[in-house]
Amino acid sequence: MEANRPDTYCAIIADVVQSRSLPDRPGFQREFLALVERAGTFLPQGEVVSRLVVTAGDEFQGLLKTPAPAYDLLVALEEALGRGRFRMGVGLGGVTTDLKPVCLGMDGPAFHQARAALEECKDRGHTLAYRAGYPETDDLLTSYAALLERVRLSWTSRQWEQIRLLATHGDQSSVAGALGISRAAVYRALKVAGWRPYEQARADLARYLASPVAPWVRTLPPEVSP
Fold first, then answer.
1. pLDDT tens-digit profile of 97-124?
2. Phi and psi for 89 in degrees, rounded to 5?
3. Which pTM was predicted?
4. Domain residue spans in the chain?
5. Topology annotation, domain 1-133
6. Cα–Cα distances in angstroms (integers) from residue 205 to residues 69, 104, 147, 190, in the given order
7. What's the CA gap between 148 and 169, in Å, rounded?
């Protein structure tokens, strides 16, 4: 291993749920390929170790420094694509091959964990699963993400409209003005949607996964170390 190279990385392997049943499959594939090409723009600067790339059909993979932005990436990709649902396996571990600019031809425990996590998504109907070799913590983080998704996917089209406008304008008064409704109506809609606790929980998840003191990140079991 190169000098000063980290012992652990975060591999992500993801695909699109039932993409073959989507209308205009060729058009979808073109949109999907273009989206993965620019997926790095949805991630914090300096987070990408090996650029995300399509590996087969509707599956892609990438290598990140930490698992912190994985959930936000999944949400951003779904928002940008506008159709289809993603599922993502997030694996933490070593990389036993040389690092490459594009995430192809690489191997190691991080990728094995990510593949196992993606298979767990398929088996258990999860949108996102985490694997680092700590079963209790892996399950806790996966369940936490599942609860976030339960909230997000429950939003109506009207709630989505207001939440997107809030992300663009930054305050509820501007959302009310854009929609021609009262600020109180926007406040009520966001409260019913559970938007504020969702955003807080989402931020808390990312902060925990980025923390150097988090046991899940700090020390890996021997079987997932390089």
1. 999 999 999 999 999 999 999 999 999 9
2. -100, 130
3. 0.86
4. 1-133, 154-217
5. Alpha-Beta Plaits (3.30.70)
6. 9, 28, 12, 21
7. 23
